Amino acid sequence: EDASDDAARPIYDFALAVERVAAAVEAARSLPFPFMLTARAENFLHRRPDLDDTIRRLQAFAVAGADIVYAPLLPDLDAVRRVCEAVAPRPVNVLAGRRDFTVAALAELGVRRVSIGSAMSRVAYGALQRAAQEIRDLGTFGALGEGASMAEISRFMA
User: CA 66 → CA 30, 48, 75, 105, distances in Å?
Assistant: First the structure.
């Protein structure tokens, strides 16, 4: 990741970001087992919507040896296409969540991996919140019947 955790300068300078990825690649290659390294350019995640800089970083991360490159929160399918074209043949990871993003559309653009991040837990917490509000506000339990049955959960977990 090229995020610095510094609110004043949320993204590491380019050279330092590339140096950090190169060091991570070196460490990963020294492991006694196969390790897939994903390098993230986090401009969009930190409100820096600079696609050209994001692509520049991803290209440099690929040259530094990252196995997969990733730019969370790309704004649209055109941005995804541009990233995939710019780093080909390096695999690209995309964060799911936008309604216009489908597995098929992303695959057609060249995306090789899709992350869901916290989306599934946010869906679950949203359902929990709606059910709790129904109980509190209406005194009814209708939302509790909308979830999966224990049998469905058991089959899923098997």
Answer: 14, 22, 23, 24
Structure-token pair, residue 30: 């020294």
Single pTM value for the model: 0.84
| Residue closest to 27 by CA, chosen among 64, 80, 70 | 64
Phi, psi of 128 (to 5 degrees): -60, -45
What token pair was written down for 39? 């390098």
Contact 37, 68 (CB under 8 A): yes
User: Per the omega criterion (within 30 degrees of 0), is the bond before 89 cis?
Assistant: yes
pLDDT tens digits, 79-132: 999 999 999 999 999 998 778 899 999 999 999 999 998 888 998 899 999 999
DSSP assignment string, 58-116 = HHHHHHTT-SEEE-TT--SHHHHHHHHHHHTTS-EEEE---TT--HHHHHHHT--EEE-
